[in-house]
Specification:
The protein has 168 residues and is mainly alpha-helical. The chain has a single domain, classed as dinb family like domain (Four Helix Bundle (Hemerythrin (Met), subunit A), Up-down Bundle), CATH 1.20.120. It has 5 helices and 2 strands. 30% of the residues are buried.
């Protein structure tokens, strides 16, 4: 994927179209940051001592998509894709033995499911719950944009460290 293929934000549409296009643009940006790299490069922890890697970000964002859209908004009970280890730590960022193709498949399928949930919602006021807290779809979309934007900043630094590639 290159910059010309990335989803452009809707500049004059309604709020749902604007939010979903900005979120999809953020998803596309992550895909761009990962494009053309080897499995080893995707797994590389490029900034010591951090556990962050591009593959770890993909896996983490699959979990975030699953949690907010499927479990909170859609009231599903979908278990983690990358379960906790014996120490009780999330394994999103434990990528030493992770299969990049499987991780990208999970992320892409989860994003597709998220898009379907958003499309099926009656309005941005649709609500889901986590424990005793209610969340609107509007909030979840805004939060997801924030989540991707933060991690795409990480992805920028990781990619530049791996092969010098820069850009949005």
């Amino acid at each position: 994927m290159n910059d010309e293929q990335r989803t452009r934000p809707v500049l004059t549409g309604d709020e749902r179209a604007t939010l979903t296009s900005v979120l999809q643009g953020q998803r596309d940006t992550l895909m761009m940051k990962c494009a053309g790299l080897t499995d080893e490069q995707l797994r590389r922890r490029a900034v010591a001592p951090s556990a962050l890697s591009l593959l770890g970000l993909v896996r983490h964002l699959a979990e975030v998509e699953r949690s907010w859209f499927r479990n909170v908004i859609n009231s599903e009970d979908v278990r983690r894709y990358f379960p906790e280890n014996e120490a009780g730590e999330w394994t999103d960022f434990h990528v030493e033995d992770a299969d990049p193709a499987e991780s990208f498949r999970i992320w892409e399928e989860t994003c597709e499911r998220s898009r379907a949930i958003v499309a099926a919602a009656e309005s941005l006021d649709a609500r889901g719950h986590h424990e005793d807290q209610a969340y609107s779809l509007h909030y979840v979309l805004a939060h997801m944009i924030e989540e991707y934007a933060r991690h795409n900043g990480h992805a920028d630094l990781l990619r530049e460290t791996i092969d010098g590639a820069t850009g949005e």
